[in-house]
Design goal:
mainly alpha; 8 helices
Length: 201
């Protein structure tokens, strides 16, 4: 990969806005959850955006994270025994995590791109993906989530309502307020405000 020099002008402003979206409090919560979910052998990074990026960059911890959320015996990402040292191997490992996260239920709009993590371009997007993954795990409540459920927000679930046939019949006789009302004031008996125009040819 080519070395990238510092940004100037508009590029610098855009990069600065992206970096300002990074949430340090959310970083602490996510690190806490990942270490509880994956076990103490994954280690713990120092505080800061760059330390988190280096910690997750090779994709191994992310792969262990998504595997720990899967049912026993069905690991969605193969984790290498030795840490991948090559750049493309590491990026491939991150791409495998993204594919597994999508299969788990994370939408494409909440996904980060591999370069966002690998080159540290948008660590806020990485946070968003991990937060969504954790929220889905809390919502599924299938026993694979470890840690405090209050660390991550539970997703809203649909609440289906069942109506009896008689309740549905009653609904057909009511006029919705969006259509107006058939009760109260009416214009019955009212006359025009003035005489009609007399058109003489």
């Amino acid at each position: 990969m080519a070395n990238k020099g510092p940004s100037y002008g508009m590029s610098r402003k855009v990069q600065s806005k992206i970096e300002n979206k990074y949430d340090k409090e959310l970083e602490e919560q996510l690190v806490e959850w990942i270490t509880v979910q994956c076990g103490p052998d994954v280690g713990r990074p120092d505080c800061g955006r760059l330390c988190s990026q280096v910690w997750l960059k090779n994709g191994v911890i992310l792969s262990k994270l998504v595997n720990s959320l899967c049912p026993d015996g069905s690991k969605s990402v193969k984790v290498p025994e030795n840490l991948p040292s090559g750049v493309f191997k590491q990026m491939e490992q991150v791409a495998e995590f993204l594919k597994a996260a999508e299969n788990y239920g994370v939408t494409k709009t909440n996904m980060f791109q591999t370069v966002d993590l690998f080159e540290g371009k948008d660590m806020a997007a990485v946070q968003r993906t991990l937060k969504t993954l954790g929220s889905l795990a809390v919502t599924k409540n299938d026993g694979h989530y470890c840690g405090d459920p209050n660390w991550l927000m539970k997703k809203v679930q649909e609440h289906k309502r069942e109506f009896t046939e008689s309740q549905l019949q009653e609904g057909t006789h009511a006029i919705g307020l969006q259509m107006g009302s058939n009760r109260g004031a009416s214009q019955a008996g009212m006359t025009g405000y003035r005489q009609p125009w007399q058109i003489i040819s």
